[in-house]
Amino acid sequence: MSKLHPSVSGLSILMALVLALGEWAFFFYGRSWAGPEGMFAPGRLGFNLAWITLVYLSFQLLSIPLSLGTRDRFIGVVDGMASLVPLGITLVVIFGKPELLGTPERWEAAILLLFVAAIDLFGGYMFSIALSRRTMDVSGPITS
Questions:
Q1: Residue 142: strand, helix, or coil
Q2: Secondary structure of 17-85 in HEC code, one letter for each residue
Q3: Which residue from 28, 34, 119, 120 has the fewest beta carbons nearer than 10 Å?
Q4: How far is it, in rounded angstroms, from Cα 116 to Cα 62?
Q5: 15 CB-near residues (< 8 Å, 6+ apart)
């Protein structure tokens, strides 16, 4: 399984960066793609975000156990830190450039993307801590 880990972590890092690139394109250039048949059309926005959320979170959270079984901890740390990039873009847009969010649909998309990135970041760390406690056998019986 250790030979599988770098490719899974690399793909996980790539997915976080692709999500960040997609967020950047949506928030900064999305208005030009928001025609009736565009990728970010108001009628398809929720559907597209649902698929993005499903694919992204499923892979990101499932790749965590694979990163704990290897000796190379650096790639696991980079994999966890890559989740900060989409979170940072969403935070910058919501709090720094709210004029890019002119419609209620774009506000909803921003809030959803914020929660997706936060769940990825904090859920990943929670899974990592829980799995590392189990492998280190720290959780013994409680005596009083």
A1: coil
A2: HHHHHHHHHHHHHHHHHCCCCCCCCCCCHHHHHHHHHHHHHHHHHHCHHHHHCCCCHHHHHHHHHCCHH
A3: 28
A4: 15
A5: 56, 59, 60
* Alpha-carbon torsion (96, 99, 101, 103), positive or negative: positive
Residue with tokens 């993307």: 113
Q: Which residues are CB-neighbours of 139 under 8 A, at least 6 positions away? A: 133
User: Are 45 and 105 a contacting pair, CB within 8 Å?
Assistant: yes
What's residue 21's pLDDT? 86
Interatomic CA distance for residues 74 and 82, integer angstroms: 12
Poorest-pLDDT segment among 11-15, 34-38, 125-129: 34-38
